[in-house]
Structures are given as structure tokens and as C-alpha cells.
Write a structure and sequence with these properties.
Keywords: Endoplasmic reticulum, Membrane, Signal, Transmembrane, Transmembrane helix. By secondary structure, the chain is of the alpha+beta class. 40% of the residues lie in helices and 28% in strands. The chain has helices at residues 125-132, 147-229, and strands at 28-34, 39-46, 51-60, 66-71, 77-84, 86-92, 96-103, 112-121.
């Protein structure tokens, strides 16, 4: 999960549904197993005029599909994906807790491995932290390069590093999904190859018996007649 640890807290009153809350100031990524016939829900606190981007992928499980719901703090359905293997959604938010759910109730035997990532923009806290340092610094006008310029450069590097981490995380998710698909196809090919081999052996044995058994019967009858004549 990297240095951006996911804070998973069980929400009261949601014993039937898995619920979790993530830190509002950090981007988060999470991988979990969704059992067959179950639904898991998560909550993300957001602020007004902020941005919530959510990307998910089904990494493993029969069909590689899941139902996805995204609800506003007022309970309105913002996004509904039915039987999808992946999706990317971005919404402009208001104050309150946004709920998103992964639904596997349509499956009775197959569990799903799901990866999702939250990217939060314009949450406000980072900008406030950047303003706090200025009251402790005096005499910046005498510097050839202002501290604001240094901060801008550092923030640019930080944003690029964060983007690189997000891309690498998504690439790892794609790699895990492709590996699971290849392993599933490998097992399927081996199974049907063994079935075909068994059928070929049975057919070959039947053909051999069909060719040689009548001759053997005729030879036995001829030998028996010869003995009776003698």
C-alpha cells in the first residue's frame, strides 16, 4: 500500500454491510476480497467544491465483474455500474460523506478480488498548511529567490511523484489482473487437453476392438468347426 496507509474503520450500524472510512486528506488505494452473495460499502468524507476521483478494477473471480454504486451525502445515486470489470468516475463534491459500494450478490459461488483507488483534490487542508509557514519567516524580500518560488517547485515535484505513484499502482493492478486471467486460461487449456486426450484414447481403443474382435470371433468359430469335423 506504500506510505499512504489506508485507515479502515468499521462503521456503527452497518453490521450487514462492510463499511470503511478513509482519511479525507490523503489519496488512498485498497485491495480486498468480496465474498459471493455479499456487498461491501465504504464512506469518504468530502468538502464542498472538492473533487473525488474513484477508479476500480476486478482483479480476480469468475466473470471479472461487479456492480458499483456511488451515492451522494443526500442518498442520491450518482453512478451505477452493472456487471462491470472496471470503471473510472470523477464527481464534484459537497460537504458530507460519500458512499460507494461493490455488490457481488448476483454471484452465488464466486468471490471477487477488487482494487480501487481514491484521488482527492482541492480538499483545502494542504493549502492552509502552506500558508502557516509564512508567519514564521521574515526578511524574504532580501532573497533573490523567494520562498514562494521554492515552495512552488517543491509542490510541482511532489505532484509529479504522486502521479507516478498512482500510475505505478494502477500498472500493478493491471499486471495482477492479467496474471490471474492467464492462470485461469492455462488451467482451462490443461483441463480440456486432458479431456481430449482421454477421448482420443477411448476412441482408439474402440477402433482397435472393432477391427480385431470380429476376426478373433471368426477364427474361434472356424477352429471350433474344424474340431467338430475331426
Amino acid at each position: 500500500m506504500g506510505p499512504r496507509a489506508v485507515l479502515l474503520v468499521l462503521a456503527a450500524g452497518c453490521a450487514a454491510l462492510g463499511a470503511a472510512e478513509f482519511s479525507p486528506a490523503l489519496d488512498s488505494d485498497f485491495t480486498f476480497t468480496l465474498p459471493a452473495g455479499r456487498r461491501e460499502c465504504f464512506y469518504q468524507p468530502m468538502r464542498k467544491d472538492a473533487s473525488l476521483e474513484l477508479e476500480y478494477q476486478v482483479l480476480d473471480g469468475a466473470g471479472l465483474d461487479v456492480d458499483f454504486h456511488l451515492l451522494s451525502p443526500k442518498g442520491e445515486t450518482l453512478v451505477f455500474d452493472e456487471r462491470k470489470s472496471d470503471g473510472v468516475h470523477t464527481v464534484e463534491t459537497e460537504d458530507g460523506d460519500y458512499m460507494f459500494c461493490f455488490d457481488n450478490t448476483f454471484s452465488t459461488i464466486s468471490e471477487k478480488v477488487i482494487f480501487f483507488e481514491l484521488i482527492l483534490d482541492n480538499m483545502g487542508e494542504e493549502g492552509q498548511d502552506q500558508e502557516d509557514w509564512k508567519k514564521y519567516v521574515t526578511g524574504t524580500d532580501l532573497l533573490d529567490m523567494k520562498l514562494e518560488d521554492i515552495l512552488e517547485s517543491i509542490n510541482s515535484v511532489k505532484a509529479r511523484l504522486s502521479k507516478s505513484v498512482q500510475i505505478q499502482t494502477l500498472l500493478r493492478a493491471f499486471e495482477a489482473r492479467d496474471r490471474n486471467i492467464q492462470e485461469s486460461n492455462f488451467d482451462r487449456v490443461n483441463f480440456w487437453s486432458m479431456v481430449n486426450l482421454g477421448v482420443m484414447v477411448v476412441v482408439s481403443a474402440v477402433q482397435v476392438l472393432h477391427v480385431f474382435f470380429p476376426h478373433y470371433v471368426l477364427n474361434e468359430k472356424a477352429h471350433s468347426c474344424d474340431q467338430n469335423i475331426v
